[in-house]
Amino acid sequence: MNNEQPLSEQQFQPQPPPPMYQQPAVNYAGFWKRFAAILIDKLIISVASLIILLPFIAMIGVSAFITERDVEAVGFFLSMIIVYVIVAMMIVIAEWLYFAIMESQRGATIGKMVLNIVVTDMNGHRITFGRATGRYFSKIISGMILYIGYMMAGWTQHKQALHDIIAGTLVVEKDRVF
Questions:
Q1: Which residues pair with 170 in a beta bridge?
Q2: Rg (CA), the chain
Q3: Which among 122, 116, 107, 111 has a CA at the least distance from the CA of 165?
Q4: pLDDT digits (tens, 9 = 90+) for 36-46
Q5: What is the spatial distance between Cα 160 and Cα 84, in angstroms, rounded to a whole number?
Q6: How many angstroms separate the Cα of 72 from the Cα of each of 58, 124, 150?
Q7: Which residues pair with 173 in a beta bridge?
């Protein structure tokens, strides 16, 4: 006796044909490529900051020698220090906006563009301004632990630094985006 039952209509569905082409593998940007990109970005930010801060630094130095009265010198010196702190805070805000806007609008900062890498979400889509902001401020944590958070990009499976894991982002080569 044969105990086999005939195949039902649901069990006998034809399988779809295999895809005509293979989806290209994603090439994650490694530690050294990312390191070079951040060096380029920090160089750009440093030069811009120096151009902005140099006049204030010069005024503080000159004020110590020019004024003859000690009371005026101290007042001017303190006011210049306050202005310097305000300008420094503005530079920090400008750096945050540089990274967040560039990565959310263009997918990459100038340093990343030079090295042909982009920041994406886990599905290969451009990140939002909020996610780019979270990624930027998560870099504080990556740096606080002796920069081990940055070094993680050298040994994690998707070459993610700690701030990428926190923000849910990937840094990939531009020509190989999902």
A1: 120
A2: 27
A3: 122
A4: 999 999 999 99
A5: 36
A6: 17, 59, 47
A7: 117
